Every structure is written in structure tokens, then in C-alpha cells.
Amino acid sequence: MRGDLIRVLSSVEEKANELKLDGYEPDVVLLGKKAYEFIREQLNEEFGDEEEVFELSGFKIRVVEELEGDAVVADSKALGLGPGGAKRFKVVL
Q1: pTM of this prediction?
Q2: Which residue, 30, 52, 68, 79, shows the most beta carbons closer than 10 Å to its own?
Q3: What is the distance between the alpha carbons of residues 15 and 28, in angstroms, rounded to a whole number?
Q4: Cα–Cα distance measured from residue 20 to residue 62, given in angstroms and rounded to the nearest whole number
Q5: Dihedral (C-alpha) 51, 56, 61, 63: value to the nearest 10 degrees?
Q6: Phi and psi for 87 in degrees, rounded to 5?
Q7: Quick one: pLDDT at residue 1?
Q8: Do the beta carbons of residue 90 and residue 39 sit within 8 Å?
Q9: Phi, psi of 70 (to 5 degrees)
Q10: Where are the alpha helices (DSSP H) in the chain?
């Protein structure tokens, strides 16, 4: 299970770096409900807790049910201003 957690954290970092290279300042990870539950389960299994997750790789987490098993790393100040400012990836395979 540790490999799944590392994969997700690596994806968050990769997408954040891509956004930074494009001139954005990523500050939030939007997670689908399934993706959030998957990550929460992985973290709780790894650290033996039963707690909620509020941050991932230093980014605030927001749950957006419509994303289901996906996640989006985004610059919240750039969303809706035009194309760009967000990168999506699959969490639950």
C-alpha cells in the first residue's frame, strides 16, 4: 500500500511543478470523494491513525464529489480565468 501513497504524492508534486513551470502558483488539491477516501485510507494505514486529511504535500485539500477517483492540482487564483491553472490526474486506478 505504501507504493500507492508514494504514487499519489509523486503525482501531486509532478503536477504542481508543471504548473509552476507554466507560471502558476498551485495552492490547492481538489479531490473526488473516492480519491479522498483512498488517500485517507492509505495515510491512516501507514501511520495507524483514524484522522481526516487536510493537506497533501503542503497543499490544502478540497473535496469535489464530481471528480470521483481523480484529483486536480490547481492555482485557485487562476481557476476560471481561462485555460490553464490546473492539472488533473487519476488517483484511484
Answers
A1: 0.91
A2: 30
A3: 11
A4: 20
A5: -70
A6: -135, 125
A7: 66
A8: no
A9: -105, 170
A10: 2-21, 33-47
SS3 35: helix
Q: Which amino acid is at 66?
A: E
For residue 63, what is the DSSP state?
E
92 has which bridge partners? none
Between CA 36 and CA 68 the distance in angstroms is: 9
Of 66, 62, 53, 52, which Cα lies nearest the Cα of 26? Answer: 62
Instruction: Give residues with Cβ within 8 angstroms of 28, minimum separation 6.
Output: 59, 60, 61, 62, 73, 74, 76
Contacts of 7 (CB under 8 A, 6+ apart): none
The CA-CA-CA angle for residues 9, 17, 69, to 5°, reads 40
Instruction: For 23-36, write each residue's pLDDT tens digit.
Output: 999 999 999 999 99
